[in-house]
Design a protein that fits this description.
The protein is an alpha+beta fold. It has a single domain, classed as Multidrug-efflux Transporter Regulator, Chain: A, Domain 2 (Orthogonal Bundle). The chain is built from three helices and three strands. Strands 1-3-2 form a three-stranded antiparallel β-sheet. The longest helix has 12 residues.
Length: 72
């Protein structure tokens, strides 16, 4: 079992993205406690499955913020 942070390191994403993967059902996780902010533990097998699935996908491009400039 992995913490959210360790799973994020293995996948090369942020801990927030790991929580999104859990919510989407892409990672198997258990919450350690009966309260909404209890930490998650993620199965190593599901992290490996997702890493292998993501290895076949092309990298996503980040959206660049557009800046509007006012005329002088």
């Amino acid at each position: 079992m992995l913490t959210t942070r360790k799973a994020a390191e293995r996948l090369g994403v942020t801990p927030r993205q790991v929580r999104r993967y859990v919510e989407a059902g892409l990672l198997d996780a258990q919450q350690l406690g009966d309260y909404s902010t209890a930490p998650l533990v993620i199965s190593e097998e599901s992290v490996e499955r997702l890493a292998q699935a993501r290895a076949g996908e092309p990298p996503r491009r980040r959206r660049q913020a557009t800046v509007e400039r006012s005329a002088p």
